[in-house]
C-alpha cells in the first residue's frame, strides 16, 4: 500500500509541475500576442494568381469580370479558363480583355 501512495504522490507532483509549466507558457504566449498586436502591420503582399473557370454567361457575368479585373492588390494576375472556344464566355471574355488592353495602351500614350 505504501508503494501505491508514493507512486500517487510522484505522479501528482509531476502533474503539478507540468501544469505550472503550461501556465507559464500560456502567459508567455499571451504576452507575445499582445506585443505583436501593438506592432504596425508590414506591407508584405505576395504575388497572387486567381484562376477563374468560366462556362456560359450568367446574369452578372460582366460585373463579376470587372470586379476581378479591378482588384486593389499590387501584384496579381487573373487567369480565365473556358472549356472550349465555342463557349459564349470565351467570346465575351475575349472582347472584354481586348477592351482592357486597348484602354491600358491609351493610358500609356
Short description:
This protein has helices spanning 2-38, 61-69, 88-108; strands spanning 48-54, 76-82. With 109 residues, the chain is of the alpha+beta class.
Number of domains: 2
Strand content: 5-15%
Shape: elongated
Unreliable stretches: none
Q: What is the tally of helical segments?
A: 3
Report on this structure:
The protein is of the alpha+beta class and 109 residues long. The chain has helices spanning 2-38, 61-69, 88-108; strands at residues 48-54, 76-82. It has two domains: 1-39; 48-108, no CATH class. It contains three helices and two strands. A two-stranded parallel sheet has the order 1-2. Strand 1, helix 2 and strand 2 form a beta-alpha-beta unit. The chain is elongated and about 90 Å long.
Strand and helix map with partners:
Elements lengths: L1 H37 L9 E7 L6 H9 L6 E7 L5 H21 L1
Parallel strand pairs: 1-2
Amino acid at each position: 500500500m505504501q508503494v501505491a501512495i508514493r507512486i500517487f504522490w510522484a505522479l501528482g507532483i509531476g502533474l503539478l509541475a507540468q501544469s505550472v509549466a503550461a501556465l507559464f507558457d500560456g502567459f508567455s504566449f499571451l504576452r507575445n500576442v499582445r506585443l505583436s498586436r501593438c506592432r504596425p502591420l508590414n506591407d508584405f503582399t505576395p504575388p497572387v494568381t486567381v484562376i477563374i473557370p468560366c462556362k456560359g454567361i450568367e446574369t452578372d457575368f460582366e460585373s463579376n469580370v470587372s470586379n476581378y479585373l479591378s482588384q486593389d492588390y499590387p501584384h496579381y494576375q487573373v487567369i480565365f479558363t473556358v472549356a472550349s472556344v465555342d463557349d459564349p464566355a470565351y467570346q465575351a471574355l475575349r472582347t472584354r480583355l481586348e477592351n482592357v488592353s486597348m484602354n491600358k495602351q491609351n493610358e500609356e500614350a
